């Protein structure tokens, strides 16, 4: 039954598959068919991200979903941070492809100052990118000492504006999400505000929803103290989806 259930794992903004690798390996060892794509513009130089945007990242995830769908009866998306945004958007535009969602610290908004003035920044984007192509990075918000996700040390501005525009689209359509959802979120997160998970839980239309608090991890919980809890909860969720 597990081999007939596909899992696509989506890493976060400026991150890489490194942040999801232990989770992916654990699910593969449990017998699930797993894909962990590298999103366009990620994993090399931060400058590469300014030539990509949310639609490019979504296209990469959809390709992985369709590839697994062709040989698996069901496909579940697991997303960290922006990976959760991508998972939610996939469930909105292609509900027929998504049997369930596992979201870890998903993002659909931000109260950061740069997010609030994003519409203005988009108006001056050509000039802005010449003088300010990047901002300080957001990688490695991990409570566990000595652990690194190997994300970019800079936040590419053009790519960030693309994500902020996508947040609005995804948030407006949260009510279109009907797939079963397992949402795990950190109590202390220095990257994605706790309001994000509350908004997702309040606005999706899914009736099969489980919320799990991660008490010992920061943002990149997949590499933090609660990593084993994430694996255990997701395996239980996937088994239930597989047998439904």
Automatic annotation (TrEMBL):
Marked site positions, Important for substrate specificity: 138
Gene Ontology molecular function: carboxylic ester hydrolase activity
Span of domain Serine aminopeptidase S33: 6-224
Residues reported to bind substrate: 13, 82
Pfam families on file: Hydrolase_4
Keyword hit for Hydrolase: yes
This protein's record includes keyword rRNA processing: no
Keyword tags: Hydrolase
Active site as annotated: 81 (nucleophile), 189 (charge relay system), 219 (charge relay system)
Protein name stated in the entry: Alpha/beta fold hydrolase
Organism, as annotated: Nakamurella sp. A5-74
């Amino acid at each position: 039954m597990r081999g007939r259930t596909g899992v696509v794992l989506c890493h976060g903004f400026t991150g890489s598959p490194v942040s999801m690798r232990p989770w992916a390996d654990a699910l593969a060892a449990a017998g699930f068919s797993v894909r962990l794509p590298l999103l366009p513009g990620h994993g090399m130089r931060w400058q590469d991200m300014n030539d990509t945007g949310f639609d490019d990242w979504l296209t990469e995830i959809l390709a992985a979903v369709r590839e697994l769908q062709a040989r698996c009866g069901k496909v579940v998306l697991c997303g960290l941070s922006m990976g959760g945004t991508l998972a939610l958007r996939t469930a909105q535009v292609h509900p027929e492809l998504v049997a369930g969602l596992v979201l870890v610290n998903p993002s659909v908004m931000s109260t950061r100052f740069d997010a609030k003035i994003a519409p203005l920044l988009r108006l001056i984007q050509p000039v802005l990118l010449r003088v300010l192509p990047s901002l300080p990075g957001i990688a490695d918000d991990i409570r566990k000492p000595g652990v690194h996700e190997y994300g970019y040390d800079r936040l590419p501005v053009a790519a960030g504006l693309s994500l902020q525009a996508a947040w609005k689209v995804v948030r407006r359509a949260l009510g279109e999400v009907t797939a079963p959802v397992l949402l795990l979120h950190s109590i202390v997160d220095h990257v994605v505000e706790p309001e994000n998970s509350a908004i997702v839980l309040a606005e999706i239309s899914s009736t099969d929803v489980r919320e799990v608090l991660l008490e010992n991890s920061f943002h990149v919980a997949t590499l933090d103290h609660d990593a084993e809890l994430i694996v255990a909860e997701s395996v239980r969720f996937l088994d239930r989806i597989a047998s439904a």
